[in-house]
Write a structure and sequence with these properties.
The protein is α+β, with helices and mostly antiparallel strands. The chain folds into 3 domains: 2-42 and 150-218 and 319-361, FAD/NAD(P)-binding domain, CATH 3.50.50.60; 83-146 and 221-315, D-Amino Acid Oxidase, Chain A, domain 2 (2-Layer Sandwich), CATH 3.30.9.10; 379-462, Arc Repressor Mutant, subunit A. The protein is built from 12 helices and 22 strands. The protein has helices at 12-21, 60-79, 98-111, 121-127, 149-162, 206-213, 282-292, 342-361, 384-393, 409-417, 425-432, 445-456, and strands at 2-8, 28-31, 48-49, 83-84, 88-92, 117-120, 137-141, 145-147, 166-168, 173-178, 184-188, 191-200, 220-230, 241-243, 254-257, 263-266, 270-271, 305-316, 322-325, 332-336, 400-402, 407-408. Strands 1, 2, 9, 10, 11, 12, 19 and 20 form an 8-stranded mixed beta sheet that branches. Helix 1 (12-21) packs parallel to helix 5, helix 1 packs parallel to helix 8 and helix 2 (60-79) packs across helix 8 (342-361). The two termini are 45 Å apart. Bound molecules: flavin-adenine dinucleotide (FAD). The site of flavin-adenine dinucleotide has 38 residues, from helix 1, strand 18 and helix 8.
């Protein structure tokens, strides 16, 4: 069958586009080379919903940042995902640089950001007592927020899928061409797909597909950002997201609570060429701790760090989102250069992609589209009575599998059996947080593997951490009675 639209990539850009397009009578398919949604940059970022004062006035980035920020409350409610407007502070620690706060304030006002305020040293410290003793002032943005990037990405994809969008995982796009009838032929490692429209939402790989179909070449530089995630004990060290003053490389090293109660510190900004190189370095981690400590005092690093990770920004040299039908490749829509604030902007990115296609194709709207999705029940958020009632109805909610995060078997079963359900350890982790805690899956991995094996019939040696060749066990080390 020829699809109306094929989307390359199931990160937040692809998933948001799929969800918006699922409102129309269109056959849509998302091709994703990984084994799950949220396997690229969307899984490794600061998780901040930016207010919108950073991007240059008049840019598409500024417009979609502010629109995406404004759309987030409704999206979070409809998709039942954690989102908190905790507010952000850009901190100034050098008196002679106080003017930068005013510049950011003016740019924010021009971009349409509401509620911005420049705070004195005393006002800033009253809001955040753990700011550096050197603080001279701060820009306060009450519309800044925090979100869970995994759940946001997964929820948009799930909702698109329940509204009819197909998802093909482990399907890597290798080549694109357009025939004389205007149909796109998409060759993958899993056979050929055809479509009237292609959306290129391939993150750091988007330049490859852009350059395959267009003579106007672009180059995307992966700009690596390293992070430390600190134990939940430290989650209250600050309550707002604390930024330094921005540089030409980005918004700088932030310190922020996460929606799940941890403290995140990062990212660095290191330009590399390898589009898969997400290993952190000691040098990177040391530098971010040093930078963060200039704005926030008594940062409890060291043994309170439970993990480190890195993500790759899809940096295009003009530092602007490229979202348009390419003039020399009809019906090929780029969604490229989606670096920060791509997470914040994703609802608006999805809408813009859908609007481009709808303007050309004029599809009918579905009358039965359902934009609501119910998340996985979190027993920790229930009262004791409600929890007891839940366990009475389904004892699996009383069996704790991940001790650090207190995640029950009931939540893991839901994660596996819901639309686009988890098939790997990381798939379960991103949907439930089993394995995200202090022991980083040391305790619960074998137990989650047993559940995946039992529920999906995947042999133990074929269960992976995150698809591909990330198998966890190779074979039995000892034959047991009954084995051949
Ligand atoms: C360090 C860092 C910090 C950030 N912090 C923030 C923040 O706090 N707030 C914010 O708003 N934004 C932030 N961002 C930006 C945000 O994370 C990204 O803009 C967003 O996640 C990009 O989503 P995407 O869907 O475009 O790309 P991705 O999430 O990378 O998705 C692209 C998908 O395409 C797939 N793909 C690639 N090639 C192929 C192929 N050949 N065939 C099939 N599939 C393919 C990949 O596997 C991947 O799943 C940050 C980014 C980084 C790196």
């Amino acid at each position: 069958m020829t699809y109306d639209v094929i989307i390359i990539g199931a990160g937040v850009s692809g998933a948001a586009s799929a969800r918006e397009l699922s409102k129309y009578k269109l056959n849509v398919c998302v091709l994703e080379k990984a084994e799950d949604v949220c396997s690229g940059t969307s899984k490794a970022n600061s998780a901040i919903i930016h207010a919108g004062f950073d991007a240059p006035e008049g840019s598409l980035m500024a417009k979609l940042n502010v629109e995406g920020n404004q759309m987030m409350d409704r999206l979070a409610e409809d998709l039942d995902i954690p989102f908190k407007r905790n507010g952000s502070l850009v901190v100034c620690i050098h008196k002679e640089e106080l003017g930068v706060l005013k510049d950011l304030y003016d740019r924010g006002v021009a971009n349409g950001v509401e509620g911005l305020k420049i705070l004195s040293r005393e006002e800033a410290l009253a809001l955040e007592p753990n700011l550096s003793d050197n603080v001279e002032g701060a820009l306060y943005a009450p519309t800044g927020g925090i979100v869970c990037p995994f759940i946001l990405n997964i929820a948009m994809a799930e909702n698109a899928n329940t509204n009819g969008v197909d998802f093909r995982f482990n399907t890597e796009v290798e080549h694109l061409s357009r025939d004389d009838d205007g149909i796109w032929h998409i060759r993958t490692n899993n056979g050929e797909y055809t479509a009237k429209y292609v959306v290129n939402a391939a993150g750091v790989h988007a330049d490859i597909f852009h350059n395959m179909v267009s003579s106007n070449k672009i180059h995307i530089t992966p700009r690596r950002g390293d992070y430390c995630l600190l134990d939940k004990e430290m989650g209250g060290h600050v309550s707002h997201t604390i930024f330094p003053q921005p540089t030409k490389y980005g918004k700088g090293v932030l310190v922020s609570p996460t929606v799940h109660g941890n403290l995140i510190v990062g990212p660095t900004a290191i330009d590399i060429e390898d589009k898969e190189a997400t290993a952190t370095t000691q040098e990177g981690i040391d530098s971010l701790i040093e930078k963060a400590s200039m704005n926030v005092k008594d940062l409890p690093v060291g043994r309170k760090v439970i993990t480190s990770f890195a993500g790759l920004r899809a940096h295009e040299e003009h530092h602007e989102f490229i979202i348009k039908e390419l003039p020399d490749a009809p019906h090929f829509i780029d969604c490229a250069g989606i670096e920060s604030p791509g997470l914040t902007s994703c609802p608006a990115i999805g809408k813009m992609v859908a609007d481009i296609i709808c303007d050309l194709e004029k599809p009918e709207k579905k009358t039965d589209w359902n934009g609501k999705r119910k998340g996985i029940i979190d027993p920790n958020a229930l009262t004791l009575e409600e929890r007891n009632e839940l366990i009475k109805k389904n004892p699996a909610y009383g069996n704790i599998v991940c001790r650090c995060e207190s995640i029950s078997e009931g939540e893991i079963l839901d994660a596996i059996h819901r639309p686009l359900g988890a098939r790997s350890l990381d798939g379960v982790k991103r949907r439930t947080r089993a394995g995200m805690g202090r022991c980083q899956a040391g305790f619960c991995s074998p137990r989650v593997m047993e559940i995946i094996n039992r529920e999906l019939g995947i042999p133990m040696e074929k269960i992976t951490k995150s698809g591909g060749r990330s198998n966890i066990v190779l074979e039995r080390s000892k034959a047991v009675k009954g084995d051949e």
